[in-house]
Design goal:
Blueprint (H helix, E strand, L loop, with lengths): L11 E3 L2 E3 L4 E4 L10 E4 L3 H18 L4 H17 L1 H12 L3 H22 L6 E3 L10 E8 L3 E4 L7 H13 L3 E4 L6 H10 L9 E3 L4 H9 L5 E5 L2 H10 L4 E5 L5 E4 L5 H13 L11 E5 L3 H13 L19 H16 L3 E4 L11 E4 L6 H4 L6 E7 L2 H9 L3 E2 L1 E5 L3 H10 L4 E4 L15 E2 L2 E2 L4 H7 L1 E8 L7
Parallel strand pairs: 7-8, 7-10, 8-9, 10-11, 12-13, 12-18, 13-16, 15-16, 18-19
Antiparallel strand pairs: 1-2, 3-4, 5-6, 6-22, 11-21, 14-15, 17-20
């Protein structure tokens, strides 16, 4: 059931069946708006209801699936993604505008994510707890075990339409939960192709549904009490409103940021420049841990900035399908125009643009700004664009304070060869992750990932997502002689 642009809309995956609906969802190609990437359907209210009821029924089966069976299913999904690597990368490239070289990396990461979930499914261990801490509890012992919480509602974002969805679907299967996934409306075709792989694994009927849907239908899913956990990746404004409507269910939020990177006086400047170019401008900066704020020690300020600007200008912009392209379009022209407005606002407040700053349709060039007011949107909000604002600093304490001067706290990169500064950053930065001698955009898929403050709550990464999708239950054993 391979997807091809211009063909009949791809069916949606409802509780193990492929179905259509009256509501066709067209999928644009950000690089070529006149050449659609394809189409599918938004689920109807009746189809949504069917999927939820099926997930509730399926949970009675998924929660009893043995570890070896959950592991097998996840390994088969991983192998299926690997086998269709080039096809999936092309679909992802066409519908998201992500350069093909980066799309291939995302497919490889999803292969790893599902494999990691298989391993975690097979090592969900509990504890033995001695309870004889007082005379009345003599001889008693406790055992803990994790049990799945129930059906999961999942909403994934457009910037990593495969791997960030994998970080929701994979842990749900591993934990023994059923799941209904709302993929991003801008690029749903990639996960529908992965659903073809999942359909061949023998998952219980209703264990997984992949349903594109309208925002109104998505709002209903957020509030639906039949789901026991909501996992959402997206913008902070949307995510926190969802939490307010979610009721009693657990909520895991992976939200945005305006990530900082510190270039200390002792940093390896060559390495820092190389990594910051990638960390700031990869996928047109549309990464929640993209380098947005750059804090550079005054002793290396001039050298770093001159070379950083030169490296940014050398990036190749163009067709995402070209293997040489390093910078493709933003997700649509409206986002490029919004970014240009933010740059103009900063300039009006006294900022200087060292390179870039002007949109061309959906394309926005690598943009580097200095002297921006701290309250300008390019500094205080999430740009989600190929845009960096640079600031000099005199001492490391000031750099720490500047990074923390934000409502966000996802990850921070710290380039330093001073071990004391590395430890200080770990102790004092108000973020979910401190990446020493690399950019905040660094992530490998088994690490705990998430933020503090407005950047969210909870952690992803298979092991930590499974903890959220399960709850601990203890069994206490009393000795026979305790009855008399």
């Amino acid at each position: 059931m391979a997807i091809a642009a211009g063909t009949k809309p791809h069916p949606i995956f409802l509780a193990g069946r492929w179905v259509e609906s009256p509501d066709i969802l067209s999928v644009s190609n950000p690089a070529h708006p006149d050449q659609p990437a394809g189409s599918t359907y938004n689920a109807s209210p009746e189809q949504y209801e069917e999927a939820v009821q099926a997930a509730v029924r399926a949970f009675e089966e998924t929660r009893k699936l043995p570890a070896y069976e959950r592991g097998r299913i996840l390994r088969e999904i991983s192998a299926g993604i690997k086998a269709r690597r080039e096809e999936l990368a092309r679909i992802l490239c066409l519908e998201s505008g992500k350069p093909i070289r980066d799309a291939l990396v995302e497919v490889d990461r999803a292969t790893l994510t599902f494999r990691l979930c298989a391993e975690e499914a097979e090592r969900m261990v509990g504890e033995t707890i001695p309870l004889d801490l007082m005379a009345s509890s003599k001889g008693r012992i406790g055992f803990t075990r994790r049990f799945p919480v129930g059906p999961v509602a999942a909403i994934s974002p457009f910037n990593f339409p495969l791997n960030l969805a994998a970080h929701k679907v994979g842990p749900a299967i591993a934990a023994g939960c059923s799941i209904v996934l709302k993929p991003p409306s801008k690029d749903p075709l990639t996960m529908l192709a992965v659903a073809e792989i999942m359909a061949e694994t023998g998952l219980p009927e209703g264990a997984v549904s992949v349903l594109p849907m309208t925002r109104q239908q998505g709002d209903e899913m957020v509030a639906d009490e039949r789901f026991k956990l909501l996992t959402f990746t997206g913008s902070p404004s949307v995510g926190w409103r969802m939490k307010e409507r979610a009721g009693k269910k657990r909520v895991v939020l992976e939200l945005g940021g305006n990530a900082g990177a510190i270039i200390d006086a002792s940093a390896d400047v060559d390495w820092a420049i190389k990594r910051c170019v990638t960390g700031a401008f990869g996928y047109a900066g549309q990464v929640c841990i993209s380098v947005q704020r750059l804090f550079i020690h005054e002793s290396v300020w001039a050298e770093f900035l001159d070379r950083f600007v030169e490296a940014a200008k050398a990036l190749k912009t163009g067709d995402p399908l070209d293997p040489e392209t390093q910078l493709g379009p933003m997700v649509d022209a409206a986002q490029a125009q919004r970014t240009e407005r933010w740059v103009r606002e900063a300039v009006a407040g006294g900022a200087k643009v060292l390179t870039g700053g002007t949109a061309d349709g959906a394309f926005f060039p690598p943009t580097i700004i200095t002297d921006a007011p701290r309250d300008a949107q390019v500094c205080s909000n999430e740009a989600f664009a190929p845009l960096v604002v640079a600031f000099p600093f005199k001492d490391f304490d000031a750099a720490i304070r500047a990074v923390n001067d934000s409502s966000y706290g996802l990850q921070t990169g710290v380039f330093t060869n001073d071990l004391g500064h590395a430890w200080q950053a770990f102790e004092e930065l108000e973020v979910g992750g401190v990446i020493v001698n690399d950019v905040p955009a660094y992530r490998i898929d088994h690490m705990p990932y998430g933020g503090v403050k407005d950047s969210g709550q909870g952690r992803e990464g298979p092991r930590w997502a499974i903890e959220d999708m399960t709850e601990i239950r203890i069994m206490v054993l009393a000795p026979l002689d305790a009855r008399g």
